[in-house]
Amino acid sequence: MRRALATPIIVLAAFAALPAAAQTLYKCTGPDGRVTYQETPCTGAGSQKRLDAPKPPSRDEEEARRLLEHESMWGDELAGRFAREAREREIARQREREAWAREERARRQRELAERPVEEIPWDTPWGFPAKPGQARPKPKPTN
Asked: The pTM is what?
């Protein structure tokens, strides 16, 4: 019973909406500058402008709009993914630089640890006495 009653109501509602979409509006400007919009032509002194309701979009236009909206959402997602990948690449490069710096510091420390201790030469400004514990040079032979 309900189903039989629902179908005619839906059909009547659809037909009632058709004339509403095709109605014409009038923009009336009164002598005092007040603007009103109405369905009947303006009466009295003042200007009148006829505004035709825009025709409903065709199926092709609706499909094109839906496709553009879908592509724009996909484009936003794609731009977000590109930005995220760029951030990840930059973080990876930074980590590589830090790892290289750590390895370089460790290598230098190993080299310093393996290097033998150098003796600093003991050089007095006048030449003698020589380093403690060393013998003095022999005097020059006299002829």
From this structure: 0.34
